[in-house]
Amino acid sequence: MPVSTIDGTLEAAALKRRVRNISVYDSITFRRNDGTEHRLGKSVVPNEVADALKPGTKGRFYLYSSIDHKGVHGVRSADGTAAYGYAQNNERLMLIVLVLNALWLIGGILLDGQVRLFPLALVVLAVVVYPLYRKTRIESRRQFDADAGYRPQA
C-alpha cells in the first residue's frame, strides 16, 4: 500500500540534508501508541512537513511509499498543528523526460526517418512511471484530506 498512518510519538529524526523543497532523513523513528517502535530508513519529506517533525511530537503521521523513495507526507499533532506536502520532484522529472524524449523521437522520425531506440526507451519508461508517481501523490492528498476531522489525543 503506498500510503499509511502511524499514531504515536516521533522519537528521532536524523536529518541528512535540506534542499530547496525537500528534506532527506537518514532515519525517522516513531513510538506507536501501543509501545512498538517503527523506523523508516532513508526518507524524503517536503519541507512544509519537515518543519513539523520535531522529536517528542505526538499525533498522527502520514507515510507514503513511492517507486523509489518513501517518507512522511503529513502530520496532525496533538497540539492541533496540521502540515501536508508531497515531494513531487520525481513526478515532474518523469513528465519532462516524457515530453523531451517524445520530441526527440518525433524529430528523428521527421528529419531522417529513423526511430531512435534511446528516446523510445525513455518515453516508454516515463509513460509507465509517471502515472504511478501521480497516483501515489493523489492518494496521499486524498488520505490526508479524508482525515481532516481527526484530532490526536494530547
Q: How would you describe the overall organization of this protein?
A:
The structure is a single chain. With 154 residues, the protein is an alpha+beta fold. It has a domain of 85 residues: OB fold (Dihydrolipoamide Acetyltransferase, E2P) (Beta Barrel). Helix content is 38%, strand content 35%. It is built from 3 helices and 7 strands. Strands 1, 2, 3, 4, 5, 6 and 7 form a 7-stranded antiparallel sheet that branches. Strand 5 and strand 6 form a beta hairpin. Helix 2 packs antiparallel against helix 3.
Topology overview:
Elements: E1 3-18, E2 22-32, E3 37-40, E4 43-46, H1 47-50, E5 58-65, E6 70-77, E7 82-84, H2 89-112, H3 117-146
Antiparallel strand pairs: 1-2, 1-5, 2-3, 2-4, 5-6, 6-7
Helix pairs in contact: 2-3
